[in-house]
Amino acid sequence: MKVQIRRVSKTTRRHKADGKGSTLDKAFVQGFVDGYSVICRAGKGWDCSCLDDECEHPDAIADLLHPEMLAELEDVAE
Question: Which of 19, 56, 57, 68 has its Cα between 20 and 30 A from that of 32?
């Protein structure tokens, strides 16, 4: 399998420039496995662009992530 991770972002709190409030940016990972787009958003779970419900593409991305990052993505999703 050819695996390419394109973007990884941890959950962070971003404060507004005017000092009035903040925004919570949730954890996110995006990559490609064998040409298929694989995305995981904290709170929404894994999504793959292939049509197979039992594909192994999300597992290929998950195998490359640090355990703490994987826990942050999947704990919030439950």
Answer: 68
